[in-house]
Structure formats: C-alpha cells, structure tokens
Backbone:
C-alpha cells in the first residue's frame, strides 16, 4: 500500500485517497470550437507510461483536496507531491 | 500411555503439565510446550496423512513453517479448521485432530491405488487427461479430482471466532528473533529507536535454541533469553511471538499475522483468535534465517525421513526422539550437531557423508565420541512403507555418478541434510532481486529496492560471529540515522565450532535397474521423473515447469523443494542455476486464514450503516427496511398481513388520493456558495442557471465529459450567493468529488466553495392532493398558497419553534413539498407531520411506493440513468441548452448520439393488463426468432400502476420515439417469461404535469 504525502496533511496511507488519472490532461476551454479528434483525445485517450507519471489523487478521506503526485508506475516510487495549483518541476 | 520416544531430562517443554489430546480418535498425552507434531512423535506416531496425488503415507519432515507433510484437520471449541501444520500447532488440553487426504482411514487408504497406477499420473497428467471430452468435466472429472485431492474440509458453519486488524508504525521492524534479529533489535532499541520484533514460533531465539555455541560465556539459549527479557522491559520495543510477517508490500508496508489464541483450548472473551498487523516501518531488518534442504534419494518421502535440523530441534526443544536407530545423511558439517545430540542421549547414529573426507572441529568431536562416520557414502533408497525400516546405502564414486557396494542397513529414521537455503521470500517480495551465491549454492538478496536489509543466514552468512557483528552494526547504523542517538553496544564474544566446506552433491543417482521415486516436492508429489518429463516435452522456463508439474505450488510454496528443482532443471539443461533463475516469491509466505484477512469487517460491520434521524420511528411503526447504498430506508410500512405488494400499493394509492409522507433524508445535499456559484452551476448542469431568482428551485441534469448522464436533482437559490444542491442518494459522494475536481483543477478562478450537508438536514416529502392543506396547518404563519409558494418555490418557515425550509418540488407527480429541518429536529418534524396529518388521512410511504409513483409519472431515476444513457435516451433532451457550453456538451455531437433510431425512454403495458414484466427483460419483435434474437431494448423499471390498476414499466427502446403504439414481446429467460406488450408514452399519469402546479 502506497504512502502518499498530501501537501496539506502530511504522510497518509493510500486508502485515504482516490486515484484521479493523468494530471497533464488539460480540459479544452469552454465555448472553444475543437475537432472531434481533439475532443476524443481529451475524453478517452490516456498514455500509460512505464516510469515517471504525474497523476492526480483526491484526498477523499482527508482534506478533500485534489493533489498531484509524481510517481514511478513500475516501482511505485513517489518522487514528489504538489498542491493542485503548484508548478511541477 | 507411555511416551516411548520422550527423553527424560532434555527439552523446553513443561513436564509438570501433562495434556491429553486425540489424533484420529485415539487418545494420547503430551506436555505443555509441545507441538502436535512433537507430541505425536513422542508417542511413536509417524503416519499422519496421505500425499496429495499418489496417497503415499506421510509423516513429519520438518519442525516448523517449512513442513510439507504433516497437515491435519483441527477441531477446537466446536469449530474445525483445515490445513493446519502439526509442526506449528501447539498442544492444548483436549486438542483433536484428524488426518486428511485419506479415506477410509490413514492406515488403509483407497486412493493409495494411485501409487501403483502412477504410470498414469505423470507431470501434466491433469492437463492431458481431463481435457476431453468436454462434457465429462463437470460430471466425472471434476468430482473425482475434488474427492481425490485437497487438504481437508472447510467448515460450512459461521466462524464464531473474533479476528482483529491493527495498524502500527515503527522505526525498525525486525522479522525473526534468531541471532541476527536479536542483535539488530537490541542495538537499535538501545539507541532509542521504536522497534517491533516478530517471531513466528512460540519461543524466541531461532537457531540459538538448538545450536552448540556460547555468547559472552553463556549458552546461546541463555543469551537469547536475557536479550529478550531486556527488550520486553523497554517502552520503545514491541516483542511478539507466534507472529509471522508474511507479506512485504509497497512503501515499507508489511503485514503480520499474530496467532493470539490458537495455542489455547478456546479464545477468552474479547480476545481475538488471530490479529493482522499492518505495519509501516521506516526500516526493515529481515532476519528470517534459512531452511535446511534435503538431499534427493529413492523413496525419500517415506515417514521417518526427516531434516537433520528438525531431528535436533525435536530433541533439544521438545525432548523427543524421531527414532532410536538413526541414519544421518549429509553433505555438510551442520548435521553432525544432530548426530552428536543423538549420541549424548545414548543413541548410536550412523553418519553417511557424501564428502570424501573432512576433518573440521565438529567432525573431530563426533569421532572422539565414537560416532560411526562413513565418508563417500550415500542413502540410495529408504525401505519400508508406512515407516522407514531400513535403507540401502552405497559408496559413491568421486564424480558422484556411480554407486558401489550397495547394502541394506537397519534404521528407523533418516536425518537428511543437503545444506542451507536462505529464506529470501520477504526480500524478494519487497521488489529486490536475488543473486546466486556460489559458496552456498543458493540465492541471497541482491540490492534493496525498499528500505530493508537482510542479515544473518537469510543473507547466506552461516557463522555466528559474523552474524552478530554485522547485525549489531546494522541495528546501530539504521537507528542512528533515525534517532540521531549515538549509543552503540559492545559486540559480544562468540565461541562456535568452525565448519568445513559442504559438498555440492544434492541428488543420489538411481542404481541400475531400479525405478525408485525420488521426490522433490513432498506436498505436491513432484518427483525427479516428472521434471525430466516436462523438459522432454519442451518446457523450458522455470515458471512453465513449475505450473506444468506443480513443483513448489503447494501450501508450503516449495520451501524445501524449490532449490533442488532448480538444480535438476539446470543439470538437465546443462546450465548453471542462476541462468535458470527462480520463480517469483509472492505473499503470503505462509497460508493466512480468511478470517484474519476479513478481520472485524464482517456482517453488519462490513460497511457503515447510516440511519436517518427518524429511523426509530420507522422501526416502531413496522417499517421493513431496504439497503440504499449504506443507508437503511423504509421500503414499506407493514400493516397486518400485508406483503410488499399490498403495502406499497396502499401507500401509493393514498398519495394519489389523500397525502403521504416519505423520509427523504438520504438525498445527497451540497451547499454551493460564493460569488461565482451561478456561473459554476451553469457549467455543471446542462440547462441555464444564470437567471434563477432567489427563493426558486430548478431541476438540473449533469453529464460526464463523455456525454453520459451523471446525476439529476433540484438546486435552490437560498440567497444571492448560496445554493442548496440535491443529488440522488447513490451519487452523492461522486457528485461532490466531481464538483471539487472542476473547482480545484479546471476552473480554479471561480470563487466557489462546496461542502456536503447531507447529514445536516432531515427531509420529509409531503405529497398528495391534500398536502397543501396539511402544510398550512404545519406552518400557520406562512403563506403556502399557490401564489405564496408556487411550484418550484422555496420559503424559510417556522415549524412550532423550529427553523425549517420548504421546497415545493415533486418526485411523485402530485402536488408536493419537501420540508427540511436540522437533523436534530428531524424526529420532531416527523412526529408533527404524522400527528397533524391524521386529519387528512396521511400515511407514511416507503421507497417502494415512491418508486411506483415516479415510474408511472415517467420520472427517470437510477435504473434509467445507469451510466449508459445520454439526455436524449431518458427524455431529458429538453433540458439541454443550445446556447451555453457545459461539462460533456461537446460529446453530444457524436454521430452515434444523433442516429435517427437512437434509443429512448418509453412506457410498456402488458396486453393482458395483468402480467407484471420482470425488470431486465429484453424487448424483441419475434419471441420465436432465431438466436441470437435481436434485442430492441430493455425494461428498466416496473411497478403496479395505482392510477390505472395494471402493470406498467419503463423501458429504454431503440427508436423509442417512433415506437409508441407498436406491439412487442418482453422476454425474461431468467424468469422464463414471454409477455406480449404495447409500447406507450413514458408519462402514464398526468402527462401535462398539471397536478404539481395545482
Ligand atoms: Zn490532505
């Protein structure tokens, strides 16, 4: 079970969190004309990298904040965690 | 009965306390501190079961967790437990156990015929034989295999025992209390670290209990006792025996199973039988020791063939002899300790050593004691069926290929030692790789992946001096990095006998013309010939060989067999062992009971039960409850002999005729607040929200980004920047997460806050033509007329001194209101409504009547909003704004969503107006059509329409818009029903919606 450092609450067990998928996905702006392909890519297509992955987790049984987690998908190593508005780098 | 194999003065069992027990119905005695295995051996019982495949007689092979044979069915305190290892089960007064895998009895077993037919049961037998014909599988093959296989029977009774879970944190978790575990625990604890030390056996000390060493001029055992006593007295240390760390998971989370009361006749009150510990450790020390591996020879599974270390443990810990005429067969020095121990107890062993010669300290000692040692000698085959009676021995050539001078000698046990295999399971589970260490012919942990270190013999270090030194150092170093303390301990002085090099020899060749079975895996009956066959048939990967032959796949996970299996594969393949590699180690290290995994999360504790503030009233008034997510809701209120149908019909009729009240507390409620709240709702819902005035409610539908309907509900503008959103009971948590996602990640510029208020409000829906009259009496000072509180209106009011909110909204299609008060006042509100409602023939109604009312109105709910439907499908397309953008809108342009014959909600009435249509039925054109019969749609919800007094259903039907008036068939193969139906409008009652506005 992962041990995730919520930037608001500190180290907490994985069972307090819900997984939220790829954090790099950007929702197209409202009212913007976009192609079917662009929209489908946003809704359905996700990369499934082996290695470093910036992803969203929701601290549902904690502070209820969505956070970003930089994790290695094969070793589960967590390199860093970020608040939702924080720049990753 | 006399314990013929019990030694007088030696051992750690309590001779003062005699315990009686039964095995296969026969009564025996043992002592406190015995295991079932040691007590049986003391009584001369060596036949404990039958093997899995050939039903060969099975005895004892080990003395602990590695035991492959002695698996019994245990009876304790009126319960039964299968798969119990007799070598681990401690004896208690009144213990009862039985053999498994044998019928009708362990002495006469019909399945043993497999042994004589074993030409039919080679590797892959099951794969090859039971594949064909297919129809035989369920009727013939499967029952046969089930009866012939398996280690005992699971109880069909509810397990009355209590199991618990515990969460713990520590600086150092130490797995195993042998020399390396004790030393590292002591060094770390003295340096201020929080330490948990876990030992799977009842006694601490590991190999120190039986080895002939001294530490600081004390015996190993005394030193271990002193260290444990000191550790137990320290507040920063938790010491647990009977506790097996069986799993190493991510981020240094380990799971330990503690057998709290398995060793007692029954659990004390409030004491669990077992406890599962979830431990998050900053550092882990794996000091799990090593397991002796056997040398393979003919009939090496005969009862009486035991590991040399187990024979020593039976003597030194339990004071029990595994035999009185022992042969010790070894390729290394450690087995000489067993021979010497026999000798000290006036038993004369014969030692067969595969090495040509050796003159180490311990061999000199053995010689000086007059022990008969035959170098370059091996056991060719054990003789005897239910117990070893003799064995064929031979001189082996230097290249280990040829056997000479074969002769038979009498013996009653063969103590075998093929050197030691480090227990690398935990290190391997942690994600670290292993490496092959030539000097010991075994794998040891390589670089760590997590924060762990393996010490002592688990790391291939077999001298006590080096083990203690590295373990004291590591314990200090790891603790220092955590505590910043600097208190190091003096490393104790060790005296031990130096061992000479072991022999790589591991398998005795077959003598010419003999076909002895030479077993590798004792629990699954995998012999050398099976592996040879698998390789002849083309299996190469060790993972494939394992699955084809079942080598190492039994409940002992091949603790004694894996390495010899690898040796064999690499010999045949002419590779070295590291090139073959080993199979993956996976948790659990030992079998864990289902009860321990489940813990207290059983029955009503498996999930929380949420109850509304009015729950007690419902209970008192004969409510029959139904699970709605984690909520308990009244399904109907039973009167007299009524069943579900009669009661819900009465309740629904009364709503249509008079007035009813329904507990709607469970609806999800979310406060949406902030200057941008209107804009946010406008983006979340499909319809327009910017112009909703204060004091008004609006029905809204929200989508997922893929265009599928996520949820619906009404939201009310309480004040300028404050909205009260309601969600369905089931989706409440998802909707909140959804809103938080958009506010925090997508549109952080919106100044809006959301918070769940579900538990803050109790809700009562008052519905029916008389509801306004009732409401006026409840709120005499509030204008609730059609003008004062119009449809979709909202007003704050006072209910006999209690603040209340009144929403004029309707789910039933009748004139209806929803009254909310703070949860604490919920019961007060409810009782007032019931009391005053008497004048209007008010009846409470449950979810079944609620459902009936909404179905015949054509209001969609969870059964239509099933995660597969878009607004058009459910008739909600009128609520989709063309002007503004919102979550999921772009998806609605999809081609498939705009097909002309797109599915849409319809009503369904059986032609006979009598037969109810099962939910889930498929709608088809031709009930006798060729299979697969094209499905046009499905019945989503069914009720008995109280308005029309006949069955009515809702369905999602292909081209539903143009199907009104057509005749179809509803088929339910599950209920074996085919019903002729007519398709009608989904609005079966008051299609213009006049009642709600009246
Ligand atoms: Zn948090």
Residues:
């Amino acid at each position: 079970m992962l041990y995730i450092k919520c930037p608001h609450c500190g180290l907490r067990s994985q069972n307090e969190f819900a997984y939220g998928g790829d954090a790099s996905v950007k929702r197209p702006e409202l009212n913007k004309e976009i192609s079917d392909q662009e929209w489908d890519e946003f809704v359905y297509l996700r990369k499934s990298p082996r290695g470093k992955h910036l992803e969203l987790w929701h601290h549902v049984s904690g502070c209820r904040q969505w956070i970003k987690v930089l994790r290695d998908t094969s070793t589960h190593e967590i390199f860093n965690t970020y608040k939702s508005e924080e720049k990753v780098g | 009965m006399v314990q013929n194999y019990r030694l007088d003065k030696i051992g750690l069992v309590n001779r003062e306390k005699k315990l009686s027990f039964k095995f296969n119905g026969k009564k025996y005695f043992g002592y406190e501190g015995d295991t079932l295995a040691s007590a049986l051996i003391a009584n001369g019982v060596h036949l404990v079961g039958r093997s899995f495949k050939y039903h060969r007689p099975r005895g004892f092979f080990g003395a602990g967790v590695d035991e492959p044979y002695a698996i019994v069915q245990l009876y304790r305190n009126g319960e039964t437990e299968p798969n119990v290892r007799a070598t681990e089960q401690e004896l208690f007064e009144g213990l009862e156990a039985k053999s498994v895998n044998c019928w009708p009895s362990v002495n006469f077993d019909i399945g043993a015929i497999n042994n004589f037919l074993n030409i039919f049961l080679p590797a892959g037998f099951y794969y090859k034989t039971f594949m064909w014909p297919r129809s035989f599988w369920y009727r013939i093959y499967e029952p046969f295999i089930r009866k012939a296989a398996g280690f005992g029977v699971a109880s069909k009774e509810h397990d009355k025992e209590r199991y618990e879970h515990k969460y713990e944190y520590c600086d150092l978790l130490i797995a195993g209390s042998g020399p390396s575990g004790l030393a590292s625990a002591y060094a770390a604890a003295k340096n201020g670290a929080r330490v948990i030390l876990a030992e799977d056996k009842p006694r601490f000390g590991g190999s120190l209990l039986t080895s002939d060493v001294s530490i600081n001029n004390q015996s190993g055992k005394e030193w271990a006792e002193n260290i444990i006593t000191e550790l137990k007295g320290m507040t920063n240390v938790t010491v647990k025996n009977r506790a097996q760390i069986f799993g190493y998971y991510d981020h240094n989370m380990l799971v330990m199973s503690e057998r709290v009361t398995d060793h007692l006749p029954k659990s004390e009150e409030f004491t669990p039988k077992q406890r599962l510990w979830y431990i998050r450790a900053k550092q882990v020390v794996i000091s799990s020791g090593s397991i002796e591996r056997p040398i393979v020879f003919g009939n090496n599974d005969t009862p009486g063939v035991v590991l040399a270390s187990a024979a020593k443990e039976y003597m030194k810990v339990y004071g029990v002899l595994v035999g009185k005429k022992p042969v010790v067969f070894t390729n290394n020095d450690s087995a000489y300790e067993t021979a010497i121990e026999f000798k000290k107890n006036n038993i004369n062993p014969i030692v067969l050593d595969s090495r040509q010669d050796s003159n180490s300290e311990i061999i000199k000692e053995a010689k000086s004691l007059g022990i008969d040692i035959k170098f370059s000698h091996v056991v060719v085959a054990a003789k005897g069926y239910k117990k070893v009676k003799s064995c064929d021995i031979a001189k082996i050539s230097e290249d280990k290929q040829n056997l000479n001078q074969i002769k038979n000698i009498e013996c009653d046990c063969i103590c075998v030692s093929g050197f030691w295999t480090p227990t690398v399971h935990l290190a391997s589970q942690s994600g670290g790789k292993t490496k092959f260490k030539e000097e010991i012919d075994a794998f040891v942990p390589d670089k760590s992946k997590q924060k762990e270190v393996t010490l002592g013999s688990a790391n291939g270090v077999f001298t006590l001096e080096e083990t203690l030194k590295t373990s004291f150092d590591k314990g200090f170093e790891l603790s220092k990095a955590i505590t910043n303390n600097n208190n190091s301990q003096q490393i104790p002085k060790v005296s031990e006998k130096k061992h000479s090099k072991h022999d790589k020899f591991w398998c005795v060749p077959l003598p010419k013309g003999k076909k002895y079975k030479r077993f590798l895996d004792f629990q699954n009956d995998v012999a050398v010939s099976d592996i040879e066959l698998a390789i002849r048939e083309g299996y190469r990967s060790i993972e494939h060989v394992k699955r084809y032959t079942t080598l190492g796949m039994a409940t002992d996970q091949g603790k004694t067999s894996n390495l010899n299996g690898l040796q064999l594969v690499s010999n045949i393949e002419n590779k070295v062992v590291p090139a073959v590699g080993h199979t993956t180690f996976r948790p659990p290290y030992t079998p864990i009971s289902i009860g321990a995994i489940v813990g207290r999360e059983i029955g009503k504790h498996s999930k929380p039960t949420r109850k509304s503030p009015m729950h007690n009233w419902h209970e008192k008034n004969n409510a029959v409850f139904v699970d709605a997510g984690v909520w308990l809701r009244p399904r109907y209120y039973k009167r007299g002999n009524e069943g579900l149908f009669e009661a819900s019909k009465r309740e629904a009729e009364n709503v249509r005729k008079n007035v009813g009240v329904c507990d709607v507390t469970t609806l999800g409620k979310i406060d949406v607040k902030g200057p941008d709240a209107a804009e946010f709702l406008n983006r979340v819902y499909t319809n327009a929200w910017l112009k909703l005035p204060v004091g008004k409610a609006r029905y809204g539908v929200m989508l997922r980004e893929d265009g599928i309907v996520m949820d619906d509900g009404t939201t009310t503008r309480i004040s300028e920047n404050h909205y009260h959103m309601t969600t369905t009971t089931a989706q409440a948590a998802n909707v909140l997460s959804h809103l938080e996602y958009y506010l925090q990640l997508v549109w952080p510029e919106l100044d809006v806050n959301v918070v769940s208020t579900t538990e803050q409000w109790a809700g009562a829906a008052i519905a029916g033509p008389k509801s306004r009259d009732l409401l006026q009496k409840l709120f005499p000072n509030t204008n609730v007329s059609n003008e004062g509180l119009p449809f979709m209106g909202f007003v704050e009011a006072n209910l006999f001194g209690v603040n209340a909110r009144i929403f004029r909204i309707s789910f039933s299609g009748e004139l209806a209101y929803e009254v909310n008060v703070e949860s604490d006042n919920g019961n007060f509100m409810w009782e007032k409504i019931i009391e005053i409602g008497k004048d209007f023939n008010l009846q409470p109604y449950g979810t079944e009547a609620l459902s009936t009312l909404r179905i015949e109105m054509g209001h969609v709910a969870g059964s239509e909003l099933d995660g597969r439907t878009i607004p058009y499908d459910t008739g909600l397309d009128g609520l989709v704004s063309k002007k503004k953008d919102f979550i999921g809108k772009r998806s609605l342009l999809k081609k498939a969503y705009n097909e002309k014959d797109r599915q849409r909600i319809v009503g369904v009435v059986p032609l006979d107006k009598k037969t109810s249509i099962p939910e889930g039925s498929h709608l088809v054109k031709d009930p006798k059509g060729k299979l697969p019969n094209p499905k046009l749609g499905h019945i989503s919800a069914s009720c008995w329409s109280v308005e029309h007094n006949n069955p009515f259903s809702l369905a999602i039907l292909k081209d539903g818009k143009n199907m009104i008036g057509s005749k179809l068939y509803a088929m339910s193969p599950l209920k074996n029903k085919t019903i002729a139906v007519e398709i009608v409008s989904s609005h079966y009652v008051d299609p213009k919606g006049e009642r709600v506005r009246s």
